[in-house]
Model the fold of this input.
Amino acid sequence: MMSEYIPQTLSDFLHSPFFGIPLTILAYQSGVFLYSWSRANTLLQPVVTGIIFVMMSITLLNIPYSRYFESVEIIHFLLSTATVALAIPLYNNLHHIKANIWPLLLTLAISGIIASASAVFIAWSFGASIEVMLSLAPKSITTPFAIAVSESIGGYSSLTAGFVIFTGVVVAVSATPIFKWLNINDPVIQGSAMGMIGHGIATARALELNNKTGAFSALSMGLMGLYTSIFLPYVVRFFL
Amino acid sequence: MSLRHNLTTLPYLVLIILFQLSGEFIHNSLHIPVPGAVIGMLLFFIYLCLTRGSSTNLIDSGSKLLKHLPLLFIPAGVGIITYTHELKTQGIAIIASLTLGTLVAFVLTLLIFKKVNRNDV
Done:
């Protein structure tokens, strides 16, 4: 039975129902290689390189996105599993909450609304469509949450995935100049803001600045993801 | 990494998938708009708190999955190619929202934290 899935030629390989799995892993590995080769250049995120690599491959091979997606559905399923596993870093960083609980939760409560509202408001004032605004709303939360929220509120989850990465890069690149400009040196404040607005990509940058900044960024990214993915669907349900 | 070590990973992976599926089930059956994976994460988080982190093996298994998290974004991310029309017609709105909106939110978050932190002390 399984033998019919063993590819003999390139064309057989492309007709295999799972052709996208090795392609995706190869694309990701080249992204990881390029990232470490560039000594962790924020603009060369492995996921960005990986996405572009797959896009170019399927365009050149004339494979529709829907067929690629079907072949890698198991990877997309594991994204949900990994989202559940995000409880682990949140649990591990829980002790950081205790000393800073009130400023942290108060900032989170306001920041979550600002992050979504500013994105939607600016897009609205430039005349964006409802679907694009809904895809922008969860842009500050970590990709697995953002994709799930976008799907559930009626945005385009693929666009959201791209928007989230872009947002993270904006925060990672602008963080140090903004800290200097506002004269903010407390790693707790720096890290929390980076994680709340710039999720995982900014957290990677925060870890380069300082361990404590990184820990608070990781914690805040988890809290922000959880908070936004709970309130946003209700807000959208109320308005639409 | 030994085979024995990998075999101990599997039951924990199954446990995490069970939380994931319970989350999906609650999302669908109770019509809660919160995504199933997020509900699953909350349940798993409560489980970790109740069991005081459970076992180091469980933590290791989950962390292994998270190590390659960016790989798992690729299938959805590639889908951007099906939205070239939106990107062409609403590109300015999108870029403005992503850069300006993000910078505004970032600066405000820093200022708010600084303010509430000072009031707290």
Observations:
- Chain A touches chain B through 108 residues (CB under 8 Å).
- DSSP finds 13 helices and no strands in chain A.
- Residues 87-239 of chain A form one domain.
